[in-house]
């Protein structure tokens, strides 16, 4: 560990664009996509998955965007982009996804002037933020970005992550979340809590949760919660680890 004041000042490596990774809560927040093609549809889909209020602006939409508009999932404004658009002024995030580079640049400039972050489909360096390729497993998100160097590589790595981190991670993370809440209530001392969390990560839960291996993740969660509450100590966590191994053997994995 370096002492305060020592070493190189934090900053991007020379010559390499260094983006700041963040998880945005867009639930209920207005976001506007300019354009109605394939790329606009992909951006709109990700926004809907995040619970944003989505407006799309374009004279023409894909069939999927049309369907979302008809069902009320998105608001569709059938017009070409022009500066001063209220849907842009009210948006938290702006996406320029038309096939016209000059329109995308205009959208980007207007968003910038209004102090908004924009994503520009044909100019990664332009707008303020990029969209990474992402794998979602419940509360777990794995995101990959190449800072615009190769979106195809980001997508390929996403596919590899999808294989390596299966659906079982969703109940796994849910389980850790629930047990974490329990330990936070039961153990007042931070250092002790950290030790328990560390040991929980050593439990062999993932093979148990892999599809078809345990009947009911909620039942397993309840049983683990009971055991954690009974003995919230490092020894208790060790004992649960042993119990899980025995259980795993009974289920026929070892
Ligand atoms: C800069 C960025 C801006 C942004 O859009 O945020 C951007 C820009 C551009 N993409 C282009 C092409 C393609 N993009 C994809 C796919 C994705 N592109 C995404 C993000 C980003 N793309 C941002 C950088 C992300 C990063 O690097 O970190 C993903 C990850 C997320 C998403 O869009 O949802 C999503 C994969 C999702 C997934 O599969 O999981 C494919 C593959 C496909 O379509 O299947 C191709 C064709 C193959 C190829 O060209 O590689 C072109 C050239 C257009 C042209 O030449 O005409 C530009 C413009 C330029 O490079 O300047
Ligand atoms: N960032 C990314 O992931 C990718 C970006 N691209 C880039 O994104 C651009 C768009 O790609 P696609 O969606 O496949 O094109 P597309 O041709 O399917 O769709 C273009 C859309 O822009 C709309 N549009 C055109 N002028 C407009 C205006 N003045 N106001 C509002 N809407 C307008 C059209 O109505 C159409 O809906 C491409 O030209 C390419 O440069 C391409 C592939 C991936």
From TrEMBL:
GO terms for molecular function: ferrochelatase activity; precorrin-2 dehydrogenase activity. InterPro entries: Met8-like, NAD(P)-bd_dom_sf, SirC_C, Sirohaem_synthase_central, Sirohaem_synthase_N. The keyword Nucleotidyltransferase does not apply. It catalyses: precorrin-2 + NAD(+) = sirohydrochlorin + NADH + 2 H(+). Pathway: Porphyrin-containing compound metabolism; siroheme biosynthesis; sirohydrochlorin from precorrin-2: step 1/1. Its EC number is 1.3.1.76. Keywords: NAD, Oxidoreductase, Porphyrin biosynthesis. The keyword Transport does not apply. Pfam families: NAD_binding_7, Sirohm_synth_M. Residues 137-163 form the Siroheme synthase central domain. It is an enzyme of class 1 (oxidoreductase). GO terms for biological process: siroheme biosynthetic process. This is precorrin-2 dehydrogenase.
